[in-house]
Amino acid sequence: MPRAKLRTPELRDRVLQAAMAMLADEGVTAFTARKVAQRADTSVPAVYELFGDKAGLVREIFFEGFRRLLHRLENGASIDDPRADLARVIQVFRGFVLDNPVLAEVMFARPFAEFDPGAEDLQAAAAVREFFVGGVRRCVAAGQMAGDPTDAAHVLLALAQGMAAQETAGWLGSSQASIDRRWDLAIHAVIDGFAPESARSSG
């Protein structure tokens, strides 16, 4: 008689949540399929049947990270002023990275040799990027920014990722006040750089 399949939606979710928790608690270097299986109260073969291999499990963590980030972005309280709201969105991104530093490392770096995201995997970030594009478009429509919204969104995401990485590593300042000030300086400097020519000239 063939062996019954171990995969079920409930077990898959339990293993994924166990993997996310283990990654947050113990970091990248301690992450193994065996430890994840122990946390999820299942077997290593069950983990491999569900995700294929360790790379498959890390890939699903990668996807889940972007789902969680998008959920946080979409559920923040928006501000009527488009420019202020775009600055708020960047701060929401910052908060997500600070709350989930190891998960952010999986999403934006390459900490696992087994998993190197390909072009299809990187589409997981598309919804987050489009959220930023939407914020820029609102600024353009309000006359607060000019230029291509996709270009500006890429620049703002790069700013947010870089600043968050600096803060996580402890390189952005020695006090919370100085860190917050540098975030504000960076955000407003970049947004101001996309201001319409008429606004820059009058300023």
From TrEMBL:
Residues 32-51 bind DNA. This is TetR/AcrR family transcriptional regulator. SUPFAM superfamilies: Homeodomain-like, Tetracyclin repressor-like, C-terminal domain. Keywords: DNA-binding, Transcription, Transcription regulation. PROSITE patterns: HTH_TETR_2. It holds the Pfam family TetR_C_33. The keyword tRNA-binding does not apply. Residues 9-69 form the HTH tetR-type domain. Signal peptide: none annotated. One of its GO terms (molecular function) is transcription cis-regulatory region binding. It comes from Actinomadura rudentiformis. The keyword Acyltransferase does not apply.
